[in-house]
Amino acid sequence: MNKTLIDAFAEATKSVLMMMAGTEVEMDGMMDGRQKVYGDISGVIGLTGSMSGSIALTLPVELAKRLVANMLAMDASELQEEDVQDGVGEIINMIAGDAKGRCNDSFKISLPSVITGKRHTVSTSKEGDGVIIAFKEKVPFYLQISLEEK
Amino acid sequence: MNVLIVDDSATMRKIIMRTIRQSGYSVDNVLEAGNGKEALEVIKDNKVDLVLTDINMPEMDGISFIEVLRALPETKNLPVLIISTEGAEDVVEKAKTLGVKGFVRKPFTPEKIGQALKQAAG
User: Fold this and answer.
1) Cα distances (angstroms) measured from residue B22 to each of A51, B109, B110
2) In CATH, what is the architecture of A3-149?
3) CB neighbours of residue B10 within 10 Å
4) Can you list the alpha helix ranges (DSSP code H) found in chain B?
5) Which residues of A sit within 8 Å Cβ distance of B?
6) pTM of this prediction?
7) Helices H / strands E in chain A, number of each
8) Percentage of residues in chain B with pLDDT exceeding 90?
């Protein structure tokens, strides 16, 4: 996967979390897409067009709650489970949309899905075509990118 | 002024609602719908002065929804703003042909929403 594409998704993640949740995050390295990473809630979205595949944002639940609470200007303790799930779906939607803009709108995005479960893993890359970007906030979280360029 | 926010994410509807109120824009009622089909039902039962709609939604997407609005005599001139992750040239052009008043791309700043509301009101 080319560096420009990876940079677009990394910058989109940082931009969305800063602009919508007022949260500054840093990139903390990259891994092969076949590595397993774990989280409690994941937002997943499909991409089609000049490239096809999916991206998944996998987060620990405490970070997901904090981000969604910031987005809604609420206290995390006031959030219902469905608020957190809907919020994570919207975060991955915006990351995909922001990256799409950075890539000259060369692909289309599907509607997001959300997966929950304590310490689950999302398998997006089987052929070694994917990468995982690790981010650092107070806790680590991951953006898994599995895309085939056409 | 009654505003209708159409987005399949309840989180995004709340964010937009808060942003409108923060922008100092005078709003009497904020109505909500999760897709174009629901929005048409809301419009049937309520007086709506401005629509803010997403594009990518289940059941009925934003462009199809605006096409229906433009085909109905009672809503053909209803001001519409798009707030979406979508920004492809063909979609923006299509929205322009449907007389959309403005296009805000997600993620957005409150200032962008405020400017778009002013534009739509003007």
Assistant:
1) 39, 12, 8
2) 3-Layer(aba) Sandwich (3.40)
3) 17
4) 10-22, 36-45, 62-71, 89-97, 110-121
5) 15-16, 19-20, 68, 71-73, 82-83, 86-87, 89-90, 93-94, 96-98, 100-101, 105, 108-109, 111
6) 0.94
7) 3, 7
8) 80
Strands A113-120 and A39-49: antiparallel
Q: How many domains does chain B have?
A: 1
Give ipTM to 2 decimals: 0.91
Domain span holding position B60: 2-121
Option in A73, A94, A100 nearest B107 (CB): A94
Q: What is the CATH number of the domain that holds B42?
A: 3.40.50.2300
Which of B5, B7, B9 should be substituted to probe chain A, the one whose Cβ sees the most A Cβ atoms within 10 Å? B9
Residue A70 distance to chain B (closest CA, Å): 10
